[in-house]
Amino acid sequence: MFNKNTLKLSIIICLITALSIFIFFTRHTQYHYHSVYREFYFVPLILAAFWFGLRGALWTAGGITLFYLAFIGFFWQGLSAEKINTFIEIIFLNIMAIILGSLREREYRERRRTQKMENLALIGKTVSGIAHDMKIPLVAIAGFSGRILKKLGEDDPHREKLTLIHQEAQRLESMVKDMLEYARPLNLRRVKENVNQLIQESIDVVKELAEKKQVIIKTKLFPGMPPVELDPVRMKQVLINLLTNAIQASSWGEPVLVSSSVKGGNIVIDVTDHGRGLAADQKEHIFTPFFTTKKEGIGLGLVMVKNIVSAHGGEVQFFDNPSRESGVTFRVILPREPEARYIANQK
């Protein structure tokens, strides 16, 4: 059976074929008929752009162009004003294919973006409701299990099981916190802060995790870093998240490098790990809510990183390290002035 796209393609081909037959069997001396038929070529072109976007419009324009060039060559009797006019019409047809196809593609992208925003808003609302209902019992479980755990002796046979309950309750409590944080609107409290100082404070937070994996955190900070107006709590959340991911991604004993620099009107922070890197499908969905490659976590960390940096007027980028190294670098670009937006994507 024909699907919708096959039917649409058949209509376009039939229209082009019918018009081409009319033109071919109309005497080439009857210029006025040819001019009318050529105008009707815009019908399949518009349909192709509307149904298949830029690619469909270009293929349709290409097919029409090839036919008409063959037709002109078959009846070639020298260059004339009519043939020059035909060449101009063919060029105009291809230009219109690019314009119509591009406009349709832009409409597609805008529609997808709007739909994605609506879906994310719905997800956020759903997540917020679920997380709110889970928060109270999880806090109770973690709290009571922690109190009982303190009263149990080291040799108590139930201590190991209760420790596991307490740890898992804390982990679920942390996940609920992330879900509520994702659903809550961002309200920045900007103050003048030194980015290098925030980096050092964030490193202190993840130092214990780095020691467990025997990962050394190295820094290369820009001297004389100018103060930036930002939300220090939110920005530390960004840095701690990126550092935690870098430590977890790195192999045992490999270094994690954190660097800061000033490039034009931007403050640039790089967090580089030396792990296995990211696969192509992971790169495509890296900032998609609830996408994660970890056994633990719910895939909201990098989404929050992107949201926080965007709220500051900046951007988060990531790219593979040079071929001689393994791993990935995440880059945070922040404007030095709160009213400005980042300008250049520097790498």
Task: Explain this structure.
With 347 residues, the chain is of the alpha+beta class. The chain has two domains: 184 residues; 145 residues, Heat Shock Protein 90, CATH 3.30.565. The chain is 61% helix and 12% strand. It has nine helices and seven strands. The strands form two sheets. Strands 2-4-5-7-6 form a five-stranded mixed sheet. A two-stranded antiparallel sheet has the order 1-3. A hairpin with a 2-residue loop joins strand 4 and strand 5. It is elongated, with a radius of gyration of 31 Å. The two termini are 51 Å apart. 23% of the residues are buried. The C terminus is likely disordered.
Shape designation: elongated
Number of strands: 7
**Unreliable parts:** 341-347
β-sheet strand percentage: 5-15%
The portion of residues assigned to helices is 55-70%
Q: Ends: how far apart?
A: 51 Å
List the strand order in the largest sheet.
2-4-5-7-6
- How many DSSP H or I helices? 9
Topology order in helix (H) and strand (E) letters: HHHHHEHEEHEEHHEE
Structural class by secondary-structure content: alpha+beta
Mean of residue pLDDT values: 79
What summary fits the major beta sheet?
5 strands, mixed
What is the radius of gyration? Answer: 31 Å
Number of domains: 2
